[in-house]
Amino acid sequence: MTTPALWIASNNPKKRAELERILAPLGITLRTPDQLKAPFDPVEDQPDFAGNARIKASTLAKLAGGVALGDDSGLCVDALGGRPGVLSARYGGPGLDDRGRMLRLLDSLRNVPGPARTAHFTCSICVCGPGGRVLAAIEERCEGTLLTAPAGEGGFGYDPIFVPREFGGDPTRTFGALDAATKDRLSHRGKALRALASRLPALLR
pLDDT by residue (tens digit) across 79-102? Predict the structure, then answer.
C-alpha cells in the first residue's frame, strides 16, 4: 500500500519538523517545494493569514499535481496595533534574519511595560487539491506575552520572546525554551494541525 503524500508549502526545516511530529501518527509522507523542478515563489499579497495560506496551498497543489498544505503564521502584538501580523516574516525590511527581526521588534516595544506586552500567534492552514480547489481551511491562535530579551535556543522566528498565557509570563517558559511536546500542545500551529488531522486522511485518498 502506497503511503499518502502531502505537499507542504515551505522549505523551512524547522517548520517541517513541527509538521512531521504532529502528523506522524497519520503515516503521511511530507514533500516540500524544493523537490519540484519548477520554481515555487507565491506572492503573499493578501491582507490576512487565511488569504496567504490559500495562495501558497493552491499554487503548490497546481505545481505538484497533488494535495498541498499552505500555512501562514505570524505574531500579532496588541501594543503595535496587531503588527507585525502577516508581515512577521518580513518585519523590519529586507536583509534581516529571524534574530534581526526579533531584535527589531523588541526595540519597537522598548517603552511598553510588562502588563501591556500582550500578543498572540495566529496560524491559518489551507489544504488544496491538485487543481487548486480548497479542501479545508482552519485557523487557530495562541495567546501570550512578550519578554524584553530572548530566552531559549529552540523554535524559530519570535519563539524566544513569546511566553504562552498558561505560564503567566515566566521567562523560562518561552516557545524557544519549551520541549517539543509542550510547544506542540500549546502552539497555534499545533492546535490547527490537530484540528485538521482527523480530516486529512480522507483528503489524501
Answer: 999 999 999 999 999 899 999 999
Average pLDDT across each block of 10 residues of the chain; the chain has 205 residues. List them in order: 82 88 89 91 94 97 95 97 96 93 97 96 97 96 97 92 94 95 94 93 89
Please, which residues have CB within 8 angstroms of residue 173's CB and are 6 or more apart in sequence?
163, 164, 167
* CA–CA–CA angle 109, 114, 120 (5° rounding): 70
Domain edges within the chain: 5-203
**Cα–Cα distance, 163 to 141 (Å, whole number):** 13
According to the 3-state scheme, what is the secondary structure of the chain? CCCCEEEECCCCHHHHHHHHHHHHHHCCEEECHHHCCCCCCCCCCCCCHHHHHHHHHHHHHHHHCCCEEEEEEEEEEHHHCCCEHHHHHHCCCCCCCHHHHHHHHHHHCCCCCHHHCEEEEEEEEEEECCCCCEEEEEEEEEEEEECCCCCCCCCCCCHHHEEEHHHCCCCCCCCCCCCHHHHHHHCHHHHHHHHHHCCHHHHCC
Q: What are the pLDDT digits (tens) for 180-200?
A: 999 999 999 999 999 999 899
**Positions marked catalytic:** 72
Single pTM value for the model: 0.92
Fold adopted by 5-203: Maf protein (3.90.950)
